[in-house]
Amino acid sequence: MSEQIEPAPASNGPVRYQIQVKGELGASWSDWFTGLRVVAEHGDTLLVGRMDQAALHATLRRVRDLGLPLVAVSRLEDR
Q1: How far apart are CA 79 and CA 72, in angstroms?
Q2: Strand order from edge to edge, sheet including 15-22
Q3: Which of 31, 51, 58, 60 has the fewest CB atoms within 10 Å, measured from its CB?
Q4: 0.85 exceeded by the pTM?
């Protein structure tokens, strides 16, 4: 018998995410990641901002297309 996976409840809008990639990107990369804060930190880069699921997937495709090694994707709690 296989287990059924229940989808998570839909969000009512954009959520804050942090995407971590390997390597430090300069501030000029913010043009590639419109609407996200680009922060170089300890040899990696953090892309931080509010986005819905479609924008999150588009950003992850851009990370892939640029050949940036993905380290982590985190959903951040609103402050």
Answers
A1: 21
A2: 37-41, 44-51, 15-22, 70-75
A3: 31
A4: no
Tokens of 49: 């901002």
Quickly list DSSP for 8-65: PPPPSS-EEEEEEEESPPPGGGGGTTTTSEEEEETTEEEEEEEE-HHHHHHHHHHHHH
Whether residue 7 has pLDDT greater than 60: no
- Read off φ and ψ for residue 9, nearest 5 degrees: -60, 145
**Contact in structure between 19 and 55 (CB atoms under 8 Å):** no
pLDDT in tens, 32-68: 898 899 999 999 999 999 999 999 999 999 999 999 9
> How far from 12 is each of 38, 54, 66, 72, CA to CA, in Å?
25, 13, 30, 24
